Amino acid sequence: MEKRVTFDHRLLPYLLLTPQLVVTIVFFFWPAAQALYQSLLLPDPFGLSSRFVWLSNFEYLFNDRYYLEAFTTTAVFTFFVTLVSMSMALLFAVLADQVIKGASTYKTLLIWPYAVAPAVAGVMWLFMFQPSIGVLAFYMKAVGVPWNPVLDGTHAMTLVILAAAWKQISYNFLFFLAGLQAIPKSLIEAAAIDGAGKWHRFRTIVFPLLSPTTFFLLVVNVVYAFFETFGIIHTMTAGGPGRSTTILVYKVYSDGFVGQDLGSSAAQSVILMLVVGVLTIIQFRYIERRVHY
Amino acid sequence: MATISIRDIRKSYGNTEVIHGVSIDVADGEFIVIVGPSGCGKSTLLRMVAGLERITGGTIDIGGRVVNELEPRERDIAMVFQNYALYPHMSVFDNMAYGLKIAGQSKEEIRARVDKAAAMLQLEPYLDRKPRALSGGQRQRVAMGRALVRDPAVFLFDEPLSNLDAKLRVQMRLEIKQLQRSVGTTSLYVTHDQVEAMTLADRLVVMNGGIAEQIDTPMAVYERPATRFVAGFIGSPAMNMLEGTAKGSIFALEGGGRLTFGDAELAETERPVLLGVRPEHLKLAASDEAALELSVTAVETLGADTLAHGSLSGANGAGSALVARLPGSVKVTPGDTLPLAIDARSVHLFDAETGRRV
Q1: Which residues contact A275 (CB under 8 A, 6 or more apart)?
Q2: Angle between helix A262-288 and helix A207-223 axes, rounded to 10 deg
Q3: The pTM of the whole model exceeds 0.90
Q4: Domain spans, chain A
Q5: Per-residue pLDDT reduced to its tens digit, B219-231
Q6: Domains recognised in chain B with CATH numbers
Q7: How far is A194 from chain B (nearest CA, A)?
Q8: Is ipTM strictly over 0.90?
């Protein structure tokens, strides 16, 4: 039987919920409603008045080549950030799981990058790879690797992907490590006795048993790459060169606050809200039936 | 099928030695049970045979091949774990076939072997199920099946029945015994349960504190325990132990008083010894023939037997706790004083200091 707390007083539970509700309403529902409303308006060039235009902001967006391009850019960016950060994190977790001496030191050090703010991480990577003053850029040039993220869109994309992935490795590492440690040791031993070598054990036992963790992280990482990488993009490339690193969330900012096209910016926010909604639904549905083996 | 030869095996964790030189020779097809209290090193010993723990000293030889440095998979063994260690994401069939697939068997061969094992273990209806859809007993059978299909030289069992309820445990115990008989595979079985140990073993290894106290057949261990520890560990309720010295037919108790054994001679001892007598070897007797008197403080009726707990009373040195196993038909109530006789042939003497049998 599930234990439930019961209140004698009818108002008390509402009173206890109030702070959370106030925060949620003021900082989440209100702005969201505002964005929804704004997305239906078109302000005049001087921002003095707005006109109600129904869905034409959305209509315009889906005929905008740049907006569709941003979708592709976001897809590429998200795919690689997720891939790199998750595979590196899994590798580190597997290695850290085997360490016996100084295990907690390794773990602590691997978790540190998570404490670095996105903008700071961005600046740090920018300095290292800046073509004229970057340390690593210097060595890359020395060994003959062509490198110029300031001018080359692919280079810029690679750089922001690396920075964003690096930042997320710690988080993924933590979950993968916990996942690995939750796998009963006797399973691995049974597989070893059954004749499976290290790699085979990983492929047939460990990885399948990690799949709930992997799926959870997949959703989290996609959300991260979609939304939380703004600071990194903003400090490193500001969406450039050209529009090569303008992901959707950055376009919301640059169209709205730089381009002053608040209607379009709000419409883009609404679309992103829908994306988050879908991701959340996927995650919830999945977590509800997470026992999948 | 193979013999196992364990020679002066040692295990240390850092500077702490936990197994202090154990030697066991296991004949081909023999069922050896390693029994002992928790922390005695029995599981560690088994895991060293399996190759899951490194061996600090000594050698382990399986089928004439020293396996000290071999990986588990190179040792030709199969192991059944306490928590079954079934692969939760695989069906029963895949669980059993896992090792065979790795060994590169053909599909038909795998099918045939798994079907055969499943038939032996009555698992045929469950082959497509995942382990979580099985009961404890069925899971245990799958774990056995996984060991069986590989037809290894040696079976290793690490407390395989301790997660099952009492009734199922009795049933599985029999099944394991029959199965091992029919396939004739050399087996090492670790348990802390003395009933399991007594009923399953061809020979018992009683371990305590990292040494093997006695290695012998279950009856021999019961009848002639080599040490005080073995005497107390095997048999339930535990053997009664009385301190004193023996001379002729008289055992002088530490706290004054004496036990008399009629005309039977006890091994003479100069030093204090422990006299051990099993509860079932205490018999009700007429007062003039009694070796001792038990004043009863508690009674446990088990149906077939009645256990009378109490202490020595009267002139025989009061205070020593004692248990007698009497026939269920005897009516005993707390407060009674029972005259009891001891058969001198069923008495065990142990050195009070070393605990060795005198």
Answers
A1: A226
A2: 160
A3: no
A4: 69-288
A5: 999 999 999 999 9
A6: 4-233 (3.40.50.300), 240-351 (2.40.50.140)
A7: 5
A8: no
